[in-house]
């Protein structure tokens, strides 16, 4: 049996767009000791491929991290497949809030050193010694006590830029690896406070909560199921929704609305907007916020330079790639300088 997809991605995208069968987007993670990640990876691929699952999964010795799209008609078979793996039996599945089922177009399972890159080398750090989980109701109650509670967003700046919880600290970082030492510095004189952390689905603050307990913080909490599960519980239980804006997601959708507020601005014109896009110039491909008007004006590119480059014949583009730099070359996600957007293409 083939354990990797080898079909052209454009063909796969077209196939999934034409398939009218309903699908559900979801995520799950589990920290567990996996002695042979390669063997487990192949076993998991066979299980999920047989029931038509699409998505992206990372497997390592410390566990599994998955974002998936599942055919509704195969839901029971999918759950049954997970239940054959002891540490995944009965696992919480975080279903997407806004979802048309077109979030993924192939199944990809990769082996990683860690399921969330943290940059930590401390062998004494025990990721299973995690903080206390909070339901949406308990999260609202604890974070209302602002005098004794510090709320920290463990996501990246381009995620919190479009949406975050009220009164949260939002670190100016691009990766989780960066976030841990930055947040530790912010909290160094606050060890007597309740430290409440949150992220998209829970996996980053699960590790972060264990890390800060390892560093001597005692009152450490995390939002169970992350923003995704919080939004579901808040709606079902008619609770106050303390999240403002959009929840960034790492699939084709790039975001799902949790509240109606739009708190970000288009990186090109400054108009109110919270829609992320990747620059259509594959030599750039920077992630940035772009409104519909600028999307049309710049043809889904981050600059005139990228727009003009994309209009060149592919042979000329391939040659110029060797000498030109673009926003994606010079800046991190969502950090390109807007004033460079009108720089023309210079082929001299």
Write the layout of secondary structure elements.
Elements: H1 9-18, E1 23-31, H2 37-49, E2 54-60, E3 63-71, H3 75-83, E4 94-95, E5 107-111, E6 132-134, H4 136-144, E7 149-153, H5 157-160, E8 163-165, H6 176-187, E9 194-198, H7 203-214, E10 220-223, H8 226-236, E11 243-247, E12 256-257, E13 276-278, E14 287-289, H9 292-297, H10 304-310, H11 314-320, H12 327-330
Parallel strand pairs: 2-5, 6-10, 7-9, 9-10
Antiparallel strand pairs: 1-3, 1-4, 2-3, 8-11, 11-12, 13-14
Q: Largest sheet, order of strands side by side?
A: 4-1-3-2-5
The percentage helix is: 25-40%
User: What is the CATH H-level superfamily of the largest domain?
Assistant: Rhodanese-like domain
Span between termini: 51 Å
Strand residue content: 15-25%
Total number of strands: 14
Q: From the coordinates shown, what is the CATH architecture of the largest domain?
A: 3-Layer(aba) Sandwich
Tally of alpha and pi helices: 12
* SSE order, one letter for each helix or strand: HEHEEHEEEHEHEHEHEHEEEEHHHH
Provide the structure class: alpha/beta
User: Taking all residues together, what is the mean pLDDT?
Assistant: 89
Low-confidence stretches: none
């Amino acid at each position: 049996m083939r354990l990797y997809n080898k079909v052209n991605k454009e063909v796969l995208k077209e196939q999934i767009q034409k398939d009218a069968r309903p699908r559900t987007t979801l995520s799950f993670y589990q920290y567990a000791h996996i002695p042979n990640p390669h063997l487990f990876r192949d076993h998991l691929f066979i299980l999920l491929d047989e029931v038509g699952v699409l998505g992206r999964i990372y497997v390592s010795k410390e566990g599994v991290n998955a974002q998936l799209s599942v055919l509704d008609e195969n839901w029971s078979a999918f759950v049954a497949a997970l239940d054959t793996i002891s540490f995944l039996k009965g696992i919480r599945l975080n279903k997407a809030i806004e979802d048309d089922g077109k979030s993924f177009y192939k199944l990809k399972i990769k082996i990683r050193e860690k399921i969330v890159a943290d940059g930590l080398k401390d062998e004494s750090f025990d990721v299973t010694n995690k903080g206390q989980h909070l339901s949406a109701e308990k999260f609202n109650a604890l974070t209302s006590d602002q005098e004794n509670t510090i709320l920290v967003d463990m996501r990246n700046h381009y995620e919190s830029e479009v949406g975050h919880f009220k009164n949260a600290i939002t670190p100016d970082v691009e990766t989780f690896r960066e976030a841990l030492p930055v947040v530790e510095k912010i909290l160094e004189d606050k060890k007597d406070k309740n430290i409440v952390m949150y992220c998209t689905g829970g996996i980053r603050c699960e590790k972060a909560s264990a890390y800060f307990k390892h560093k001597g913080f005692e009152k450490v909490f995390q939002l169970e199921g992350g923003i995704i599960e919080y939004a579901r519980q808040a709606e079902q239980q008619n609770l106050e929704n303390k999240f403002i804006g959009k929840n960034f997601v790492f699939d084709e959708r790039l975001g799902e609305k949790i509240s109606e507020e739009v708190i970000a601005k288009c990186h090109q014109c400054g108009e109110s907007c919270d829609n992320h896009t990747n620059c259509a110039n594959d030599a750039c491909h920077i992630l940035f916020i772009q409104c519909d008007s600028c999307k049309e004006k710049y043809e889904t590119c981050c600059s005139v330079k990228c727009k003009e480059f994309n209009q060149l014949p592919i042979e000329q583009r391939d040659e110029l790639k060797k000498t030109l730099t673009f926003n994606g070359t010079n800046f991190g996600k969502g950090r390109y300088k807007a004033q460079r957007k009108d720089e023309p293409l210079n082929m001299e």
